[in-house]
């Protein structure tokens, strides 16, 4: 006789984790512009340097001096702000120019259109995430492995926080960009491969490290998406401790 199980019930979230309605989250996104994180690095490492960013079509092949690099970075950051508050389709070059405190003429020295600027931002994100994938050290079943995994998740979260509007637009497929969609899939694959390669101890019984790595990276990306799109309200330390614990115990079956 097959076993019977009690009906599944959605658990009540703890009082310090809030699930936000889609309508409220949308209103929040409309008023929240992306800013670089001002929190100190939570793993004791120096904060990452602000990247200069990728040049658009008009500036490719042209060497930019320090002033030009700063101007281009302002335009890229202005694009992040505008895509955050208006979304991709509603964003205009005029909005980006105002956010960057520069002129239309200056904009077109670096980018041919808002689509060109968005693609530059996507390339910027892809480069940063590829570097993040390569920064993961050995993951062991002990406390050192737990600490390495948590430090990596800190860096992942900070990157996701800074580029939240671009990642949301990318993830939500607000634009018809199959090439960028494939790039996003490739990046998640790189993250999973990096995690799999960094596992330096036998995984738990019945755990396929390749499948587990892909599932865990997908979980981390989705949860960061929910937090950054304001559908879930969770404290940073609480989120990092929980994700690290779930990943570490999921791989090794024991708690550090």
Mind explaining what this structure looks like?
With about 260 residues, the protein is mostly helical. The protein has one domain (about 20-250): Tetracycline Repressor, domain 2. Helix content is about 60%, strand content about 0%. The chain contains ten helices and two strands. A two-stranded antiparallel ribbon has the order 1-2. It starts with 17 loop residues before the first strand and ends with a helix.
Q: Layout of SSEs?
A:
Blueprint (H helix, E strand, L loop, with lengths): L17 E2 L2 H10 L34 H25 L2 H8 L3 H7 L3 H21 L8 H20 L1 H8 L6 H21 L10 H20 L3 E2 L2 H17 L4
Antiparallel strand pairs: 1-2
CATH homologous superfamily - what is it?
Tetracycline Repressor, domain 2
Form type: elongated
Query: What topology, given as strand order, has the largest sheet?
Result: 1-2
Specify Rg, calculated over alpha carbons.
20 Å
Sheet with most strands: 2 strands, antiparallel
How many H/I helical runs?
Answer: 10
CATH class: Mainly Alpha
In which range does the helix fraction lie? 55-70%
Number of strand elements: 2
Query: Helices and strands: which structural class?
Result: mainly alpha
């Amino acid at each position: 006789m097959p076993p019977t199980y009690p009906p599944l019930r959605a658990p009540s979230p703890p009082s310090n984790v809030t699930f936000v309605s889609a309508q409220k989250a949308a209103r929040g996104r409309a008023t929240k512009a992306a800013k670089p994180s001002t929190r100190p690095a939570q793993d004791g490492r120096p904060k990452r340097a602000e990247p200069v960013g990728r040049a658009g079509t008009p500036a490719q092949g042209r060497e930019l001096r320090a002033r030009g690099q700063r101007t281009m970075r302002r335009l890229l950051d202005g694009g992040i702000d505008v895509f955050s508050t208006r979304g991709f389709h509603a964003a205009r070059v005029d909005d980006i120019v105002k956010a960057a405190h520069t002129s239309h003429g200056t904009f077109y020295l670096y980018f041919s259109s808002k689509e060109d600027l968005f693609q530059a931002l996507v390339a910027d994100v892809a480069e940063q995430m590829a570097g993040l994938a390569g920064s993961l050290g050995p993951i062991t079943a002990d406390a050192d492995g737990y600490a390495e995994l948590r430090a990596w998740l800190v860096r992942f979260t900070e990157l996701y926080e800074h580029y939240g509007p671009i990642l949301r637009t990318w993830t939500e497929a607000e634009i018809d960009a199959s090439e960028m969609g494939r790039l996003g899939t490739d990046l998640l694959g790189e993250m999973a491969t990096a995690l799999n390669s960094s596992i330096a101890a036998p995984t738990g019984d019945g755990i396929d490290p390749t499948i587990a790595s892909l599932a865990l990276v997908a979980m981390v990306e989705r949860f960061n998406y929910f937090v950054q799109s304001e559908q879930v309200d969770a404290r940073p330390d609480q989120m990092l401790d929980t994700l690290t614990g779930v990943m570490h115990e999921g791989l090794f079956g024991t708690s550090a």
